[in-house]
């Protein structure tokens, strides 16, 4: 179904420009989104410290992550509706202010229930920041300049998740876990003042708000809450609960399916849906949503896999494992502006295809790791991955919104951000589950060789026994200790092989996306209009 323009009587996009400096506006709204995205990953490394401080188990402490993701995921698709009811600027300022207040409350929490409650509130208000940031940038910049503007946005989307574990590790190891929340306070205050000073609603949004009547799509809201809330619980808790072998996960899986399917069906027939999903009928936007989903799966999964490998298998501290990601973040800062300048000169789909190809090659390079891998090699592997990612976010975002009508920017930005964030949860959950499964599979295969009939095993056992005997280990303990050394090596080898398998799977996924990039209409964002644009 074609999305026609809404006649609001407001000036067209070409007649309106914001009074404030567009780049100052972009920096102001991105600083708020950066703060929110950072909070999705900065807490991860602090969980053991939170558990110890509040006298709970680490498994219980993970609800501080789950509660945030659930609230955040529910609000993302309906943030455009909130903006239309309250006014976009007003809603954005409310979200920044309340996110800042909730961050302060999280840092002051004295019990786990308090922290979970404040994290729910933080996720609820944080969910409105990314879509509104995207929508404001879409309205502030004309299509010809959006590529450069999205380069600023990319800082929040790509660099914040990477810096989160590093910054979280440094703060937690050297100060206190409470300061991972307290640091949001000055940033939030500054962002709130900047947005109130610089940002303004475009005239067509003001006219739509004046002409519109308050109508609440209770059914749509309820189904979205049920579906996305249940989905986030499944994705975040599935690994710990052993997935579908758990009645808890099975129940929430059914609820997620019923809620999501029901929401899609209802939003297609509702007269005034809480979010207009018909925007997905636009080919470029639908492909862009698919591409950003795929990119986010790889971005978040790889951002978790490498530090996890460093900490669990190589014995790195939280700070050092986070530092592995830092060179890649710095490289991205330099690469993204260059990609933005290429947009008007090279067909956008070629840039996206290049990005996924580079990403696939980088992930295959990561699949060559060995138990002797060092810090420099891990940092180079991650830097190579982020180099490919730098070719993706700005071109995908630019072409996805290139043929969207201005009055649909809010709905499109909400759905686009929802796809990206859900993909992050999917990537982390699936990657973690695959590592666990492949470790068990590899260990089962390798352990078949631990028999007296396998000559390499017999030779290794003899060497270990001789070494232990030379170090004065008692004869009664020699056999047990020698076998223990072999088992430890077996565990290391099977774990490393599991990471190799998962990196290879991610590489294949990246390469499989490349042909889909050519389904985009041929265009240079900021150049000529896409051929066949909807």
| Total DSSP helices | 23
Q: Hey, roughly how much beta strand do the residues contain? A: under 5%
**Can you give the mean pLDDT?**
84
What is the rounded distance between the termini?
Answer: 10 Å
Largest sheet: none
| Strand/helix succession | HHHHHHHHHHHHHHHHHHHHHHH
Shape: globular
Q: Give me the count of strands.
A: 0
Helix fraction bin: over 70%
Low-confidence stretches: 1-12, 527-534
Radius of gyration: 25 Å
Which class best fits the helix and strand makeup? mainly alpha
Oligomeric organization of the protein chains: single chain
Structure, briefly:
The chain has 534 residues and is an all-alpha fold.
Q: Descriptors for this entry?
A:
0% strand, disordered N terminus, 73% helix, 534 residues, globular
Q: Could you explain how this protein is built, in words?
A:
The protein has 534 residues and is an all-alpha fold. It contains 23 helices and no strands. It is globular.
Which SSEs are present, and which pair or pack?
Blueprint: H1 22-41, H2 47-53, H3 58-61, H4 63-75, H5 79-86, H6 88-108, H7 112-126, H8 129-140, H9 146-174, H10 179-182, H11 184-198, H12 203-211, H13 218-237, H14 247-269, H15 283-312, H16 318-323, H17 326-342, H18 348-366, H19 375-389, H20 393-400, H21 409-447, H22 455-470, H23 475-513
Helix pairs in contact: 1-8, 1-9, 1-11, 4-7, 4-13, 5-6, 5-21, 6-7, 6-11, 8-9, 8-21, 9-15, 9-17, 9-20, 13-14, 15-19, 15-20, 15-21, 15-23, 17-19, 18-19, 18-20, 18-23, 21-23, 22-23
């Amino acid at each position: 179904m074609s999305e026609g323009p809404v006649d609001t009587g407001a000036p067209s996009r070409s007649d309106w420009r914001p009074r404030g400096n567009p780049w100052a506006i972009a920096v102001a709204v991105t600083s708020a989104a950066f703060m929110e995205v950072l909070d999705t990953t900065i807490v991860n490394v602090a969980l053991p410290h939170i558990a110890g401080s509040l006298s709970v188990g680490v498994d219980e402490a993970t609800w501080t992550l789950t509660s945030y993701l659930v609230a955040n995921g529910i609000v993302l698709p309906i943030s455009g509706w909130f903006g239309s009811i309250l006014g976009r600027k007003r809603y954005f300022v409310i979200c920044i202010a309340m996110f800042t207040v909730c961050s302060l409350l999280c840092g002051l929490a004295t019990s786990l229930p308090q922290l979970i409650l404040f994290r729910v509130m933080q996720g609820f208000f944080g969910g409105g920041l990314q879509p509104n940031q995207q929508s404001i940038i879409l309205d502030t910049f004309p299509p010809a300049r959006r590529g450069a503007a999205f380069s600023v946005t990319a800082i929040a989307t790509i660099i914040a998740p990477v810096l989160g574990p590093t910054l979280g590790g440094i703060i937690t190891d050297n100060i206190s876990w409470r300061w991972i929340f307290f640091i949001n306070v000055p940033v939030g205050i500054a962002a709130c003042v900047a947005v109130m000073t610089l940002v303004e609603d475009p005239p067509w949004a003001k006219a739509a708000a004046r002409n519109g009547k308050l109508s609440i799509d209770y059914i749509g809201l309820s189904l979205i809450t049920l579906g996305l809330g249940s989905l986030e619980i499944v994705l975040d808790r599935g690994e710990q609960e052993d997935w579908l072998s758990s009645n808890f996960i099975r129940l929430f899986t059914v609820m997620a399916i019923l809620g999501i399917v029901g929401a899609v069906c209802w939003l297609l027939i509702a007269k005034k849906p809480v979010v207009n999903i018909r925007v997905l009928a636009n080919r470029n936007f639908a492909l862009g949503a698919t591409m950003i989903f795929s990119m986010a799966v790889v971005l978040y999964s790889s951002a978790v896999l490498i530090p996890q490998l460093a900490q669990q298998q190589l014995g790195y501290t939280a700070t050092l494992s986070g530092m592995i990601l830092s060179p890649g973040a710095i490289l991205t800062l330099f690469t993204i502006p260059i990609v933005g300048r290429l947009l008007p000169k090279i067909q956008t789909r070629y840039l996206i295809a290049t990005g996924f190809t580079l990403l696939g090659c980088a992930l295959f390079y990561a699949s060559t790791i060995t138990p002797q891998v060092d810090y420099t090699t891990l940092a180079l592997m991650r830097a190579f991955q982020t180099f490919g990612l730098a070719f993706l976010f700005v071109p995908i975002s630019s072409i996805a919104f290139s043929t969207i009508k201005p009055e649909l920017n809010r709905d499109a930005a909400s759905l686009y951000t929802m796809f990206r964030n859900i993909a992050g949860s999917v990537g982390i959950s699936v990657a973690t589950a695959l590592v666990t499964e492949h470790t068990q599979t590899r260990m089962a295969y390798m352990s078949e060789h631990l028999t007296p009939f396998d000559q390499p095993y017999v030779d290794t056992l003899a060497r270990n026994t001789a070494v232990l005997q030379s170090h004065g280990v008692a004869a009664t303990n020699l056999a047990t200790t020698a076998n223990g050394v072999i088992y430890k090596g077996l565990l290391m080898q099977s774990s490393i092989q599991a990471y190799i398998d998962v990196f290879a799977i991610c590489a294949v996924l990246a390469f499989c996306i490349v042909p889909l990039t050519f389904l985009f209409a041929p265009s240079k964002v900021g150049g000529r209009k896409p051929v066949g644009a909807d």
